Amino acid sequence: MSAITVSGPRRFSGRLRVPGDKSISHRALMIAALGRQPCTIGGLSDGDDVTRTRSALEALGARVEDHASGDVTVTGGLDGAPNPIDLGNSGTGIRLLAGLVAGYDFTTTLDGDASIRRRPMGRIIEPLSAMGASVRGRGASGALAPLTVEGRPLRGIEYALPVASAQVKSAVLLAGLRATGSTTVHEPAPTRAHTEEMLAAAGVRVEREGGSVTVWPGEVAPPNSIGIPGDPSQAAFWLAGACMAPASHLVVENVYLGPARGGFLEVLARMGADITVDSDTGNIEARSSELEGTRVTAEELPGCIDEVPVLAVAAAVADGVTVFEAIGELRVKESDRAAAIVEMLTGLGAHCRIDGQTLVIAGGGRAQGLGGGTVHARGDHRMAMSAAIAGAAGCGSVTIEGFEATATSYPGFARDLSRATGWAP
Ligand code: S3P
After folding, report:
1. The CATH number fitting domain 22-215, selected from 3.40.640.10, 1.10.287.3610, 3.65.10.10, 3.40.50.300
2. What predicted TM-score, i.e. pTM, was given to this entire model?
3. From the alpha carbon of 332, which atom of ligand 1 is closest?
4. Scanning 13, 16, 133, 270, which has its CA 20 to 30 A from the CA of 204?
């Protein structure tokens, strides 16, 4: 296990580009693999999660060719993978692929690392089974990975999501491409809309109305090229860090600004963050700010679910109390993030507790909110990066054990930490 130590407070400055959006990258590869014509993808995330999805699609029969520019060209055509597919740490990879292969006439076994094997898969097994799919998992409940998906003819369904999850929505919509009749998903709160947007751009009939989305089966004809913008969830680390740290001014360039991904910007703005978004370029600028506590409601949590760890770090140096409501979904991410956040922040001298379904952080202000200590990343990329921001923007020396987890989504994070703050290993 590798560890790094980051001491602060440091100044955040300069201009950065973050990796291509992870959610869009998975979907670009999958949708391209369903097409008949080659599709060239630029700006793909270089994280391990997306690389796993690429390898999975190659094992299933798609061809992926690398270009010197970093672009890849995908030529679709899936005919089955003889061996289990290892999706590593990727919940998006395993859940979306389960839906994607469910209507083919081959059997696929989907597996992942220890974290993936703990995460709930019943949430996709239930609607896919209602469509006629055969998905068998491990354990008494049969709802844990590895999952064996035996291809079956599928029928369209109408499904109300019990939890606001873009992964579940997407698994059902992708299965719907090979079902008879239409498939409708109703969402309890808005979640990222990449699957429906990208399927529509690939010529699939998609209708959206209020909190519902319907797809019809049919040919997938991806565009000749897809360009992937920067990942807002990765930009969040630098933007939050620049707001927290003294004398800072930083720009993250070319960030995706579409629906249901910018919730963290609204939360930071409410906290008093000095952040400016250029909607033409996707450039986002952040400056040192006097932050105040805020309430993140149950309705808005799905729109900033991946940014809660770094928002919690920012809350620790704010003045006043910050509350995150309805934190149940945080417990079933790459780690139990509710517990991981409490352990991280209390270990760094902040006041943080879970009160039923609510995470409560009593901010101590910039000078006293965060001190030094050791944080265990728990194999969770977003915890590792949040702890590094706590070290760089807080007032202590923070050692992050298991820092290698950053490779899941952001292999260049340490390099960018140096660029943004002058940190040296
Ligand atoms: C993702 C959806 C979210 C998010 C994950 C990526 C996606 O998960 O936490 O990092 O690409 O669809 P849920 O939809 O399960 O909340």
Report:
1. 3.65.10.10
2. 0.98
3. 15
4. 133
